Here is the input.
Amino acid sequence: MQAIQIEGLTKLYKNGRGVNKIDLTVPQGSVFGFLGPNGAGKTTLIRTLLGFLKPQAGQISVLGIDALNRSREVRRKVGYLPSDPALYDFLSGRDNIEFALRMRGVKDRTRVQSLADRLEIDLKRRVKSLSRGNKQKVAIVAALAHDPDLIILDEPTSGLDPLVQETFLDLVREEQRRGKTVFMSSHIMSEVEAVCERVGVIKDGKIVALDTVEHLKRQRVKYVKAEFAAQVPDLKAAAGVSDWQVEGRKVRFTMAGSMDALVAELAKGSLVDLTVTDPPLEEVFRQFYEGAGGGK
Amino acid sequence: MTLLWQQLRAQFVGLLLWTGAGLVLVMGLSGSTGAAANSGTDMFAKLPPELKRMVGFHEGLSALDNFIAGKVATSLVLILVLYAIVLALSIVSREVDRRTIDFLLSLPVSRGQVLLTRAVVMVVNTAIVGAILWGTFIAATQGQGMEIDASACWMIFLSQWLLAVMIGSITLLISLWIDDYSLAIKLFLGLLSALYFLELVLKAAGVERAGRLLSPFSYADPVAILVDGTLPMSDALVMVGATALAIGLSVPVFNRKQISA
Here is the structure.
């Protein structure tokens, strides 16, 4: 079963931005990364999922529920962490969470303290007196306290210090192990790479890539290092080769497309060592946004 | 109930502040009422005819009643209407401006439920503030040994409360298109001043009630209540009807509202 199923979703603002004809599925129990720079349409899609925005066209099913017509039921099963969470500042962190739990009709409070302990946040303090990072922690507890089946995170680690970011990513992994689905928008590649199995890349309101992290990295360029016993053959003009850098008998370059022809060419020389590595996700992402192979 | 309790809690400090500020004004007015009644002169009688009409001076009323209509009621109605506007703008406009709407609407609650619960708080809180202020005024003047028509004063309170709720409800409806809270406050306070000024100008110009039907403040006329001893039912019905219409329209408008980031 799909946790999220989106078909032909279009939500365009007057300035032409938004999301346009999006098709997307997120399987239950997976951690899905939704990548894109600011203004690409990530938040628009999330807000449409939650019923904050009404789309011009398309269908959305969340946990098998029609999200456009039964948004309230969807929100009962979803935990949402906005990119810049705002809580009621006249209340303490605990009172904000208590309000959310009561509204959801949840009686079990066991997760509240355990989450607060994990994130090292004092829930007794008024939200008004908390730093941005601590407000973010309270919002994380509020989003997870009711043990939702689907967790929607919009740039969740902004405002968190690196140690808490790691704790948070551990929490995400734990939720997945418990069978929960996590939909996480981000423009921080390292965190997406750390926890997500699949990613969608959005550009100018359209999905330009939808794949597993590993496959996405593999199908894009590769970093190649080669060492020769004698002179390095001059292959910088070969198809798909770029960033050709020779240092003595060693060469490093970037390769796009099939490796077969290149390996055959390299083997004609006195090849001693050959290392081929996948680029980090940042590089893959950069290629999409620079339009190299797959981007708009 | 959780939503209602949360909103009552959110507005509790505001309730105390508005009541406190109103009580300071009421105590001052009560002292002036004593002076006006004891001097035995009608301070409004010396005014030029335009100003007499503007403050609602009525020959058939006593000096005390003219003072209540011309000064006490005109001061307290402004407090109540201002408070209703602030409460109305806190229902959606402030939530959107401060982004707490994201937290609220991510919960399994319908927008209609949010709006109606908060409208109830607007109705309740304006009633509390108005009742405390008018109750204090009546008690303070009676404590000074003055013979005041308490039932007429309560009728004036009722009409002012209905007016405040009506203006608050219309404010709520219009504010659904305004996401900037500080802009909304400035806009509605400006609008309120303009409407109040319009009513004063129309009255000074001697425009009869029929010509002031579009002026909201004409629906809470303390002079008519003090003269007749009762609240004009047609005015009350118009205010209740306008309130119901404004809130009734607000629900579908809020349901269709796009909550952008």
Residues 292-296 of chain A have pLDDT under 50 and may be disordered. The interface with chain B takes residues 13, 43-44, 47, 50-54, 72-73, 75-76, 78, 80, 82-88, 90-91, 96, 99-100, 102-104, 139, 142 of chain A (CB under 8 Å).
